[in-house]
């Protein structure tokens, strides 16, 4: 598969039922905790490439380990191998991964006593890691760059002989992801507390035998919110979702209410039903601070374009260091479709468009970024569109192209 041409056919069943794989964010955290505490069992683990790469890497303790494009795996495994006694690994990844900074995490681990060396460029993978016992129990780290650096430290904290206190410098970004990590630690029986600008985690020799069922991925649900928003009367039922979610991207419920999508929680079935409502923005403009939920920014921007709305999205500084520079990629691809877009280091502004929604099979480049492919796919409801490098969706949602057929978006290899 290279490029897919997408087209829309109104489905016979206006209420489609979709099973989405378990949350990648929850799964990857639990996989690290399972490696530390084998008493932990995981149900509904993510089938994403990132989680599969994590599983494979955790079986090794020697030699070269290639995590490809998996940014979460790079951060979490750096900390894991640093405290795994007798581990001797070179942790590497794709060309893009070797351009994504990791110095803040490495510096924090070195302060704690870790033995980590850069193989090539200072501050970037690949890393040579020799695991050892860590005795220090307090570290300070910049909190305004990537929450994954901090979560990586939190996940290894229970394995440290004296636990760990992390002092956060600056404004904390993507705070819900840190709260998710703390909540999962507490859920398995590890004492942890997130207070103001510090997080404390106690040491733990073992935990009780238990099974955790991973909630389905809210980031992946965003594409179905977009599809319903752009449709005239579609409804979609998504399986294994709950109102009290650990995932920050559950903010979709509130955000998409402004974009004409109603969410109904079916508590008895652990599912949600998304349906089209008649409510629209009174001023045709959406202003959002997405510093806590940057992974849904691409979806929201594309939805607003498809609806002919203006939007200004703030707090997007972390998108510069993802699989691609997502802000520049969004600007480039939306402008292909006739949009007027401006970006800064942390904002995206889209002007309301009077486009005829006639894309004429315009090809969207995805820059090896799964979220670019999936964010633009819902526009097929407006007109035929082509997605290049369509296979990149496997990074987080392997069944994406099959799943969207259920709501009438069909694809054929171009």
From TrEMBL:
Signal peptide: none annotated. 3-phosphoshikimate binds at residues 24-25, 29, 146-148, 174, 295, 322. Phosphoenolpyruvate binds at residues 24, 71, 100, 148, 326, 371, 395. It catalyses: 3-phosphoshikimate + phosphoenolpyruvate = 5-O-(1-carboxyvinyl)-3-phosphoshikimate + phosphate. It is found in: Cytoplasm. The active site is at residue 295. Pathway: Metabolic intermediate biosynthesis; chorismate biosynthesis; chorismate from D-erythrose 4-phosphate and phosphoenolpyruvate: step 6/7. Residues 64-402 form the Enolpyruvate transferase domain. It is an enzyme of class 2 (transferase). Its EC number is 2.5.1.19. Keywords: Amino-acid biosynthesis, Aromatic amino acid biosynthesis, Cytoplasm, Transferase. SUPFAM superfamilies: EPT/RTPC-like. PANTHER family: AROM/DEHYDROQUINATE SYNTHASE, PENTAFUNCTIONAL AROM POLYPEPTIDE. Catalyzes the transfer of the enolpyruvyl moiety of phosphoenolpyruvate (PEP) to the 5-hydroxyl of shikimate-3-phosphate (S3P) to produce enolpyruvyl shikimate-3-phosphate and inorganic phosphate. Monomer. Belongs to the EPSP synthase family. This is 3-phosphoshikimate 1-carboxyvinyltransferase. The lineage of its organism: Bacteria, Pseudomonadati, Bacteroidota, Flavobacteriia, Flavobacteriales.
């Amino acid at each position: 598969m290279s490029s897919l041409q997408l087209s829309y056919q109104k489905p016979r069943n206006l209420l489609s039922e979709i099973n989405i794989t378990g949350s990648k964010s929850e799964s990857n955290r639990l996989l690290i905790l399972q490696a530390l505490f084998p008493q932990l069992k995981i149900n509904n683990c993510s089938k994403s490439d990132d989680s599969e790469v994590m599983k494979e890497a955790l079986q090794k303790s020697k030699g070269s380990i290639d995590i490809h494009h998996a940014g979460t795996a790079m951060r979490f495994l750096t900390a894991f191998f640093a405290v795994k006694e007798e581990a001797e690994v070179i942790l590497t990844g794709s060309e893009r991964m070797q351009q994504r900074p990791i110095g803040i995490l490495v510096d924090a681990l070195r302060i704690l006593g870790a033995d980590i060396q850069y193989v090539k460029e200072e501050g970037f993978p690949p890393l040579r890691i020799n695991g050892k016992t860590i005795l220090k129990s307090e570290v300070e780290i910049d909190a305004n760059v990537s929450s994954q650096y901090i979560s990586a430290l939190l996940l290894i904290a229970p394995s440290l002989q004296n636990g760990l206190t992390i002092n956060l410098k600056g404004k904390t970004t993507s705070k819900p992801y840190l709260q998710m990590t703390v909540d999962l630690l507490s859920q398995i029986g590890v004492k942890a507390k997130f207070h103001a600008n510090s997080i404390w985690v106690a040491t733990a020799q073992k935990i009780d035998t238990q099974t955790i069922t991973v909630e389905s991925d809210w980031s992946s649900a965003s594409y179905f919110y977009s599809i319903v928003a752009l449709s005239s009367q579609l409804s979609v039922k998504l399986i294994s979702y709950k109102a009290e979610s650990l995932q920050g991207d559950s903010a979709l419920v509130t955000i998409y209410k402004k974009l004409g999508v109603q969410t109904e929680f079916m508590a008895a079935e652990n599912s949600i039903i998304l349906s089209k409502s008649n409510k629209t923005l009174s001023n045709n403009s959406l202003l959002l601070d997405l510093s806590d939920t940057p992974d849904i920014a691409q979806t929201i921007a594309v939805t607003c374009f498809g609806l002919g709305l203006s939007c200004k999205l703030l707090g997007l500084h972390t998108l510069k260091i993802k699989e691609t520079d997502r802000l520049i990629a969004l600007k480039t691809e939306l402008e292909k479709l006739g949009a007027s877009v401006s970006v800064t280091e942390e904002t995206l502004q889209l002007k309301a468009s009077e486009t005829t929604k006639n894309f004429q099979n315009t090809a969207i480049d995805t820059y090896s970024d799964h979220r670019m492919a999936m964010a633009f796919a819902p526009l097929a409801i407006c007109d035929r569109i082509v997605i290049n490098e369509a296979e990149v969706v496997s990074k987080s949602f392997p069944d994406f192209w099959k799943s969207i057929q259920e709501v009438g978006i069909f694809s054929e290899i171009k």
